[in-house]
UniProtKB/TrEMBL annotation:
CDD domains: SgaA_N_like. It comes from Acrocarpospora phusangensis. This is Glyoxalase. It holds the Pfam family Glyoxalase_6. Residues 6-117 form the VOC domain. InterPro entries: Anthracycline_SecMetBiosynth, Glyas_Bleomycin-R_OHBP_Dase, Glyoxalase_6, VOC_core.
Length: 119
């Protein structure tokens, strides 16, 4: 069962995902599995289930490391964030390869993500 409104994922975005995979793999012993669709590598630890991913940006977006919060309704959270002085950077509808998600800025300009887990 999903615990909504909790940090449930992290992402490291880079234009050199192979180097990031080597760095984090050798530093922490993380393992990586390719996800379908875009250049996304699911991170697993000795603890089991994926808890994050490395996104290969292809140079199309800024590099970042960000936490994501599991929410019931991405669109509603985006609206609330804007009402509270934050900003929606980008919002995506659910697709076959990804859940509904968004990247947001808090009022201080800090990037974070939200997503609605599948099922």
């Amino acid at each position: 069962m999903t615990a909504y409104n909790t940090v449930a994922w992290f992402e490291i975005a880079t234009d050199d995902p192979d180097a990031a995979e080597r760095f984090y793999g050798e530093t922490f012993g993380w393992k990586f599995n390719a996800d379908t669709g875009m250049d996304y590598r699911l991170i697993t630890t000795d603890g089991g289930a994926p808890s994050g991913g490395i996104l290969g940006t292809g140079g199309t977006m800024p590099k970042h490391a960000v936490f994501s919060v599991a929410v019931e309704d991405v669109a509603a959270v985006c609206k609330t964030v804007e009402q509270l002085g934050g900003r929606v950077v980008v919002q995506y509808a659910a697709s076959e390869s990804a859940p509904a998600n968004a990247y947001l800025l808090d009022p201080a300009g800090n990037l974070f993500g939200v997503f609605t887990p599948r099922g």
